Amino acid sequence: MYSISRLTLILLLIYKKANIFIMAAKNIDMIEMQIDALVKAGYYHSISDITKSAFRVLLESKSDLKVASAVELYKMGKISLSRGSEIAGVSLEEFKEVLADKGVVRTLSPSPDIDDNVARILEGTD
Predict the structure, then answer these.
(1) CB neighbours of 71 closer than 8 A, spacing ≥ 6?
(2) Rounded to whole angstroms, how far apart are CA atoms 104 and 72?
(3) Contact at 8 Å (CB) between 84 and 77?
(4) Residue 50: what pLDDT?
């Protein structure tokens, strides 16, 4: 059985967590009101514009997130090596090193236009 002081401590912890939850909810409400106010004041056209702007600022302040997103996009095959280095904000050689450090195997993907280019070259030699 719990002693009164231990039970009091547990109740205080529950109360504290409940207050933290209430404060977080109030903060979310305030953020939503501020977003609406900025759109209504004409600083942004939409909530989407604010989200994009906030995301850009986040990436500018946390370069590790830029690198992480570039690595993941590269791993998914969504971007090229050079585009990855641009997104990460590092040189091509640095991006290659980042990929190697993270164990990402680089692959060479031929351009989808390669067959058309080869056909045009062959047509020109006839």
Answers:
(1) 84, 88, 98, 99, 102, 104
(2) 10
(3) no
(4) 86
